[in-house]
Write a sequence for this structure.
C-alpha cells in the first residue's frame, strides 16, 4: 500500500503545483477557480491535521491569495509525504476519529482518508481547469499518467 500512497502523494504535490501555475498565468484569475483551488488546499490541510491528531488551523473554504496557496500547498504536501513515510504499514488500516467542520464525530480508516484526499483534489482540479478554460486561460494538465510519464495526455482537437 505504501508505494501507491507515495505515488498518489507525489501526484497531489505535482498537480497542485500545476494548477497553481495555471492560475498564476491567467489574466484575470477567475475568482471561482481560485476559490475552488483554495478549497482543495484547505481540505488537504484539514485532513492532514486530523491524521496527525492536531487541531485544524485553516478553514475548509479559506479565502487565500495565490501566494498563500503556494505556501499552503508546499507545507501540506510535505506533511503528507512525511506522514506516509513514517506511518507503520499496519497503521494504514487503523481508524482515525475526528470531527468534521459541523462538529460531528466520525471514524475512518487512515488509508480511506488518504485516498479521499487524493481523489477529492483530482475532482476539484478538474473544475479549476474547466473554469480557467471557460475564462480564456490555458489549464495545465494534471492527470496522474501525465506526471508518471512526464508528458501530458492526448488532447482533443478544437
Amino acid at each position: 500500500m505504501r508505494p501507491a500512497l507515495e505515488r498518489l502523494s507525489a501526484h497531489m504535490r505535482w498537480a497542485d503545483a500545476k494548477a497553481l501555475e495555471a492560475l498564476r498565468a491567467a489574466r484575470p484569475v477567475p475568482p471561482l477557480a481560485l476559490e475552488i483551488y483554495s478549497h482543495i488546499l484547505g481540505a488537504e490541510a484539514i485532513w492532514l491535521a486530523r491524521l496527525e491528531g492536531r487541531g485544524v488551523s485553516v478553514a475548509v473554504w479559506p479565502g487565500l491569495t495565490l501566494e498563500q496557496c503556494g505556501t499552503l500547498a508546499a507545507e501540506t504536501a510535505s506533511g503528507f509525504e512525511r506522514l506516509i513515510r513514517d506511518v507503520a504499514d499496519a497503521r494504514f488500516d487503523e481508524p482515525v476519529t475526528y470531527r468534521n467542520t459541523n462538529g460531528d464525530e466520525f471514524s475512518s480508516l487512515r488509508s480511506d482518508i488518504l485516498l479521499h484526499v487524493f481523489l477529492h483534489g483530482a475532482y476539484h482540479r478538474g473544475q479549476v481547469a474547466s473554469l480557467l478554460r471557460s475564462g480564456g486561460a490555458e489549464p495545465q494538465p494534471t492527470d496522474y499518467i501525465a506526471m508518471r510519464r512526464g508528458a501530458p495526455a492526448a488532447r482533443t482537437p478544437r
User: Anything to note?
Assistant: The two ends are 40 Å apart (CA to CA).
